[in-house]
Backbone:
């Protein structure tokens, strides 16, 4: 199913994405030991003092890391950053995981902020590759991906990104959240975080008799198509997942408008 027009996936530079991990392996590691581990991984760490970082999301000094054409700031997360990832907030999602009650204690939360990633796919692929290395170095148990406001188990996230780097198929469920909202006369399911990859979010009313899982399964396929082929440029009607099923796509506010919405309608032929 191809709904876009571009064969090259694009990444929007706004909003600035970041990841946050709970790094259990970092609890006993001194900064010098962490820097040595980063150097052994070939990430060329550059130590930055607090004034050079100038980002309230970091608690003090940080490192600027380098891999291929990209750089990333890495340092301990500040209370402000932890508040942004609060798993108890209604807008935060958890993908088949739960966090320990002391998740924000003990200085084990580390923040990753890609720098100057631009709009091309390759820098973001390199950023994800660096994140895989950092998950290993810090022995991370959980990871928060800010564009989706979504927590995942770090080993599962790592495996999904490693698979993406080999196959080119993005792990939709780890990078895009699917949020359910009761509207009184029906249920809406909307993506969050997809706009980073294709400039659009999807929104669908859940057909009568469907489960949330059935709706998300179909929206995930459409989201994957947008990630791979670009935004939906014009209204379209496509064949659906099952025999006789159809999908109607209606982009709102122009396909190239930042964070525009594509309204999705599911239906089936009579008989």
Residues:
């Amino acid at each position: 199913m191809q709904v876009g027009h571009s064969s090259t996936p694009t990444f929007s530079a706004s909003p600035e994405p970041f990841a946050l991990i709970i790094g259990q392996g970092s609890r006993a590691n001194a900064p010098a030991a962490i820097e040595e581990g980063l150097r052994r991984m070939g990430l060329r760490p550059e130590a930055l003092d607090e004034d050079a970082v100038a980002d309230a999301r970091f608690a003090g000094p940080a490192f600027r890391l380098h891999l291929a054409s990209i750089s990333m700031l890495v340092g301990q997360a500040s209370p402000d950053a932890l508040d942004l990832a609060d798993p108890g907030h209604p807008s935060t999602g958890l993908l088949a995981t739960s966090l320990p009650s002391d998740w924000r204690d003990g200085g084990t939360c580390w923040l990753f902020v890609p720098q100057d990633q631009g709009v091309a796919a390759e820098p973001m692929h390199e950023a994800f590759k660096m994140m895989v290395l950092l998950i290993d170095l810090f022995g991370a148990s959980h990871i928060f991906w800010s564009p989706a406001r979504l927590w995942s188990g770090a080993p599962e996230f790592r495996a999904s990104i490693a698979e993406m780097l080999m196959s080119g198929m993005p792990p939709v469920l780890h990078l895009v959240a699917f949020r359910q909202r009761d509207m009184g006369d029906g249920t809406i399911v909307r993506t969050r975080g997809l706009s980073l990859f294709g400039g659009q979010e999807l929104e669908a009313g859940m057909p009568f008799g469907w489960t949330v899982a059935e709706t998300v399964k179909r929206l995930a396929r459409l989201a994957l198509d947008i990630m791979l082929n670009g935004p939906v440029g014009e209204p379209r009607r496509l064949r659906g997942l099952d025999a006789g099923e159809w999908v109607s796509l209606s982009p709102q506010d122009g396909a190239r408008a930042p964070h525009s919405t594509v309204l999705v309608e599911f239906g089936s032929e009579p008989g």
The first strand starts at residue 19 and ends at 23. Residues 121-138 form the longest helix (18 residues). The helical segments are 31-40, 50-53, 79-84, 121-138, 154-167, 172-175, 195-198, 212-229.
